[in-house]
Amino acid sequence: MPPSPSRVTQADVARHAGVSRTTVSFVLSGREDMRISIEARQRILGAAQELGYRPNLTAQSLRTRKTYTVGLVSDRVASTHYAGEMIQGALEAALERDHLLYFAESGDDPEAERKLLQGMLDRQVDGLVHAAMSTRTYRPSEQVRSYPSVLLNCLDETGEFTCVVPDEEEAGRQAVKLLLEAGHRDGVHVVGGSQVTRRSPDGVYAGRERMRGIEEALSAAGVRLSGVSECDWSSPEHGYRAARSLLDSEAPPTAVVCCNDRLAFGVYQAAGDCGMSVPRDLSVVSFDDSELASWLRPALTSIALPHHELGRTAVSLLLSPDEREPAVHRIPMPVRRRESIAAPRR
Amino acid sequence: MPPSPSRVTQADVARHAGVSRTTVSFVLSGREDMRISIEARQRILGAAQELGYRPNLTAQSLRTRKTYTVGLVSDRVASTHYAGEMIQGALEAALERDHLLYFAESGDDPEAERKLLQGMLDRQVDGLVHAAMSTRTYRPSEQVRSYPSVLLNCLDETGEFTCVVPDEEEAGRQAVKLLLEAGHRDGVHVVGGSQVTRRSPDGVYAGRERMRGIEEALSAAGVRLSGVSECDWSSPEHGYRAARSLLDSEAPPTAVVCCNDRLAFGVYQAAGDCGMSVPRDLSVVSFDDSELASWLRPALTSIALPHHELGRTAVSLLLSPDEREPAVHRIPMPVRRRESIAAPRR
DNA sequence: TCCTCCTGCTCACTCGATTTAACATCGCCG
DNA sequence: CGGCGATGTTAAATCGAGTGAGCAGGAGGA
Q1: Separation of alpha carbons A6 and A56, rounded Å
Q2: Residue of A nearest to B118 (CA)
Q3: Nearest in space to A42 (alpha carbons), one of A9, A17, A8, A10
Q4: Contacts 24+ apart (CB under 8 A), B219-227
Q5: Mutation for B interface: A4, A67, A69, A103, most B CBs within 10 A
Q6: What homologous superfamily does CATH list for B69-166+307-331?
Q7: According to the CATH classification, is domain B10-55 in 1.10.260.40?
Q8: Does B55 touch chain A (CB under 8 A)?
Q9: Which of A189, A292, B83, B278 has its CB 3.0 to 4.6 Å from that of A253, i.e. a possible disulfide?
Q10: CA-to-CA separations, B115 to A99, B79, B142, B143, B319, in angstroms, rounded
Q11: Which residues are in the HTH lacI-type domain (chains A, B) (predicted)?
């Protein structure tokens, strides 16, 4: 029982053009070495056109073992909104090479992840992207170790895989550079830090790298960091509290580096409540460049997570087998200059 | 030239179990009508287990014309962040029925959309979801009219397709209800309106429906709307300007219904600048429930776009052929009560 | 003893493509 | 005039499964 309604196949085209299926295949797949006469070629192309022939990729894949398909499995996307850009970038690179993208999310559940990967392997994807929503280490499971894979926004410790991550350390340096250029020296404080919490006693990758960059750039300029308020990055509330206690102190900072825009939002709220004005009394620079940054008044200078470029690069590397030497690719984080930095007040 | 490394196939299992390939197929696909002895069944299952057999879905699909795959094509996702939830919901419903999801974005380019849909059709997807990031009308192209399709967050004028949209009108009623319950009567103003702009001279769907709901609920209570500030919804700036002129007037409103959270954010900023406090001097209720709503101080009461549920429902309907009568499904928008509403000051 | 019926399994075809090897036909050269 | 190479085309196998028809062998009945 062939389950009903079929599309136009090569056999139909062959019949229409008065040649064999083989010939049709040769013409349509453009094999130059097979010497088909111009007339036959024309008849076939004409028939294909007329009948609206479209190849059945499923059948093609079965024979060629190539599906023109890549799978992207992330841990979670809804929580960090900018992930959309990452997927978009991945999609863009896939389409450029005529691939379609399977997208799925494990929700951090290993069993769910296993199933998803298995589903993609069963469907013979050409390659896999393992994505994390905030940079961290990741160990691909045994089932995919022999499979073309790229890690997106995560690092593997074994060095077996190609990884694509943002260049957080350089971003840290850039943040400091902006403040130094504006004339800030000793009053620079950090809100956020490495994000040491119960769940992450060593801090998070982005935090550690940003801090490293910040400290390096400051010491290169011979400036001492006035202090770091370690706190959770998850909501403006934490930034507010940190800033409140800073601004109420007897030697408030002249500039604050916030580890993300949410914290910066909290700092803005605190400054407002303390009757201080950004950037006149307090310069603020931040990371991530979420939409929030452009909505704040004054608009917030922030160093962007290059989500689009991350996704793009990952898939692009995945589909260029020649460039798939295991390596860590660090994508630059662009500075978005806005109005939250000014010279320190004297 | 069979291009190299192959996985375990049914033929391998058959050899291992000492039966024919046919028998293996019958056992593994669980056909009860074929009378296979218990011993044979056990040997086959054992062999499959031992060899780590996994069916090749590509081959299966070729024969059965079922790919266990659905395609989701949206216009754009990166701009409106909450789309992530929508995709997640869609994914969830797909997985429940053992389907995987192709995700793609047309970027509002009809030619790109055509290509994406064609790519999915060529890959024999079982069904398509056409998604829009903000509710609007959509006319599926000729190429997919005979294909199982569901419209997600958009409506078709022809009534040929199943559509899933948020119940905006009811949300409008709910917003008013919250204010009436708090004791507001004549001082209720709307910021945003139908969002009449150059690009949308008739306003947008969400705007018109919300306004309809708002007006209906007010008139049902015998209350007159104090006024509507029609404006662009895209950034807090517009909300700020609208609110500024309202609050500086001689009869400022006691409550404002904002057509989305960005506008509400602008209203907060304006209230702050005018020395007014939310909710003591001004109650605010809003729509969408973006993250922003919970970050604001005081936290903003907002009526959520049920993105997750929208995506979930769309795919769920798509994969239940019995329920695929063309119809419009309106998904309720949940109220998130927070701290931005109080009784009017006398 | 022959016929039928059931049980348990297999043969051979099919899905829609790719790909290898071979087969006509023709002209040309020795 | 026979063999050979070039040219244009096709038959048949293959990818990995699903599936209708059929075939042994034993039990049971007439």
Answers
A1: 10
A2: A54
A3: A17
A4: B221/B176, B221/B180, B223/B180, B223/B185, B223/B186, B223/B188, B224/B186, B225/B188, B225/B189, B225/B190, B226/B186, B226/B187, B226/B188, B226/B189, B226/B253, B227/B189, B227/B190, B227/B253
A5: A103
A6: Response regulator (3.40.50.2300)
A7: yes
A8: yes
A9: A189
A10: 11, 22, 13, 11, 23
A11: 8-64
Parts of chain B belonging to CATH 3.40.50.2300: 69-166+307-331, 168-305
Separation of alpha carbons B81 and B335, rounded Å: 20
Q: Per-residue pLDDT tens for A80-139? A: 667 788 999 999 999 999 999 999 999 999 999 999 999 999 999 999 999 998 888 999
CB contact under 8 A, B81 and A84: yes
**CA distance linking residue B33 with residue A21, whole number of Å:** 37
Query: CA B20 → C1' C5, Å?
Result: 25
Of the candidates A275, A294, A306, the one whose C-alpha atom is nearest the C-alpha of residue A88 is A306
Instruction: For residue A115, give both structure tokens.
Output: 């199933």
pLDDT tens track for A19-72 = 999 999 999 998 878 888 899 999 999 999 999 999 999 999 999 999 999 999
